[in-house]
């Protein structure tokens, strides 16, 4: 009964936000919802301090309580956009996300090749799919968990998606379907900082390695897909920039012995964004960092 009531309240909140989005300009909607996000972030961080774990120097400032509060507030605000993903393709929203490097996907499409988009749980990663689908990319993502346990909210969001013939998500028990989707020439998002599956230690910065899941590299190798790094940068006020980096050279996907080199190239494309916006690094991604034996 308690879970049912909570779920019903959650769906009511979603419909309430969707209704506001229909009648308010973007700036007005942002300003109305900002106090809600601030209060929730303050409560989340008021009684606990970020764990004191060793980090590379450029990330040392992101573990303060103030930084954690700001990150939480932005995250709560940005997650509200996931309540109306189909609206991000409208004129009202289209100027709120710039996409750099879309030419790499367009080139793969012209050559009839599928695309694996490799990303980390960094910044507003959860909006990557919605913004790229709004740009016309036939994109789905692999998520953790099993399809039978998918929440009511996620099922509702799936019905609201753009490109209705293209699935939003594949769970871990749907990897065969995900592989078929990719083989059909589509684009598939795969996280590099997932703890499941085969891992490889990839250089991150001086004295530090990144424990990278090999799934993205493995899928790209299996399907001769373009392997493209993807980052989304939160520029504030519901304005974003997506950076699609240079694809990994195909010759590094032929042999498993070259996969660490492929992972290193992915990191080299992403690290400049991490360094420019260290406050947007999430705890999930930071957990994948460890000191290298050479440090």
**Ranges with pLDDT <50 over ≥5 residues?**
none
Shape: globular
Order of H and E elements: HHHEHEHEHEHEEEHEEHHE
Radius of gyration of CA atoms, rounded to a whole number: 19 Å
Give helix % range.
40-55%
Q: Provide the spatial order of strands within the biggest beta sheet.
A: 1-9-8-2-5-3-4
Which percent range describes the beta-strand content? 15-25%
Give the helix/strand class: alpha/beta
pLDDT averaged residue by residue: 88
What is the rounded distance between the termini?
54 Å
Biggest beta sheet attributes = 7 strands, mixed
User: How many separate helices?
Assistant: 10
Number of DSSP strands? Answer: 10
Descriptive account of the structure:
With 295 residues, this protein is an alpha/beta fold. The chain has a domain at 88-291. It has ten helices and ten strands. It has helices spanning 2-23, 26-45, 65-79, 102-110, 128-134, 152-159, 175-183, 215-223, 259-276, 283-286; strands spanning 97-100, 115-119, 139-142, 169-170, 187-191, 199-205, 208-213, 226-234, 240-244, 289-291. The strands form two sheets. It has a seven-stranded mixed beta sheet with strand order 1-9-8-2-5-3-4, sandwiched between helices. A three-stranded antiparallel beta sheet has the order 6-7-10, with helices on one face. A hairpin with a 5-residue loop joins strand 8 and strand 9. Helix 2 (26-45) packs across helix 3 (65-79). The radius of gyration is 19 Å and the shape is globular. The termini are far apart. The mean pLDDT is 88.
């Amino acid at each position: 009964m308690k879970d049912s009531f909570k779920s019903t309240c959650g769906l009511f909140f979603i419909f309430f936000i969707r209704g506001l989005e229909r009648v308010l300009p973007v700036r007005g909607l942002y300003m109305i919802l900002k106090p809600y996000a601030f209060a929730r972030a303050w409560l989340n961080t008021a009684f606990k301090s970020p764990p004191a774990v060793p980090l590379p120097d450029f990330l040392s400032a992101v573990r303060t309580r103030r930084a954690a509060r700001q990150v939480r507030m932005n995250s709560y605000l940005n997650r509200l956009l996931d309540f109306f993903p189909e609206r991000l393709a409208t004129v009202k929203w289209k100027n709120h996300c710039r996409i750099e490097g879309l030419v790499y996907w367009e080139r793969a499409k012209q050559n009839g090749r599928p695309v694996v988009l490799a990303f980390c749980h960094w910044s507003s990663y959860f909006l990557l799919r919605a913004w790229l689908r709004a740009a016309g990319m036939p994109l789905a993502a692999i998520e953790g968990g099993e399809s039978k346990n998918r929440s009511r909210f996620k099922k509702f969001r799936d019905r609201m998606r753009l490109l209705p013939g293209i699935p939003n998500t594949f769970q871990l028990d749907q990897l065969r379907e995900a592989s078929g989707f990719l083989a059909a020439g589509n684009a598939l998002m795969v996280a590099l900082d997932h703890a499941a599956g085969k891992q490889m230690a990839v250089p991150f910065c001086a004295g530090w390695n990144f424990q990278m899941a090999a799934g993205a590299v493995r899928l790209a190798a299996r399907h001769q897909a373009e392997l493209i790094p993807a980052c989304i940068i939160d520029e504030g006020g519901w304005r974003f920039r997506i950076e699609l980096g240079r694809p990994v050279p195909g010759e590094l996907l032929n042999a498993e012995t070259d996969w660490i080199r492929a992972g290193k190239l992915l990191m080299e494309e992403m690290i400049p964004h991490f360094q420019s916006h260290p406050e947007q690094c999430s705890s999930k991604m930071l957990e994948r960092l460890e000191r290298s034996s050479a440090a």
